[in-house]
Amino acid sequence: MKAIYTIALAISLLVVSCGKKETTNNNNKPTVAVKVSKVTANDTNPFITASGKVAATNSAELSTRMMGYVTNIHVKVGDKVNKGQLLISINNSDLQAKKAQVEANIIKAQAGFSSAEKDYNRFKNLFEQNSASQKEFDDITVHYNVAKANLEATKQLRNEINSQFAYTNIRAPFSGVVTNKFIDKGAMANPGMPLISVEGKGGFEVTALVPESEISQIKKILRLM
């Protein structure tokens, strides 16, 4: 029994000894140096983060002042266009009818003015020869002026109608690219309604929401990332 106790004690001492040796090895590992920096506000950061919209500096949404059906769309989104190129055609039958009526009125007004002009010249000569009274000459003069004004008014109306034809033919205001189309062939175009958009060559501009506290940091030459 004494021998058994001696062996058990020896084993216990061996286990304790091994445990101590392992602990000693762990404590001998090299220490890793850690550098700790204090968190501070960075007032020298040159960047500002903001949400915004990027758009071409030369862009346009084209519309018409006339109501009518779209008879043809001559371009597609992404097409390159030149200044003055026809983009959209709108039915102009009403304008054609108005123009025909005005042309007929001009012919009538021209005939009335020609007759009044002849009478005016004839009575003017008679008045200068004392062969016509002042009242007769005044009446002829009024008739002549009315006929002249009527002719000028009908011609002006024709000019206004001709200018309205420009709103039935939507053309590119500058060279660029078609970026969007808001209407289809056969649809009704209303005054002021966007029909098509075009962007020209050139730079871009950014519209962004910037906090008031950071507005002073923005300069004209600030580079965008």
TrEMBL record:
Pfam families reported in the protein's UniProt record: BSH_RND (PF25917), HH_MFP_RND (PF25876)
Entry protein name: Efflux RND transporter periplasmic adaptor subunit
PROSITE patterns assigned: PROKAR_LIPOPROTEIN
GO terms, molecular function: efflux transmembrane transporter activity
InterPro entries according to UniProt: MdtA-like_BSH, MdtA-like_HH, RND_pump_MFP
Residue ranges annotated for the Multidrug resistance protein MdtA-like alpha-helical hairpin domain, each copy included: 100-155
GO CC annotations, alphabetized: efflux pump complex
All copies of domain Multidrug resistance protein MdtA-like barrel-sandwich hybrid, residue ranges: 59-192
SUPFAM superfamilies: HlyD-like secretion proteins
Sequence similarity: Belongs to the membrane fusion protein (MFP) (TC 8.A.1) family.
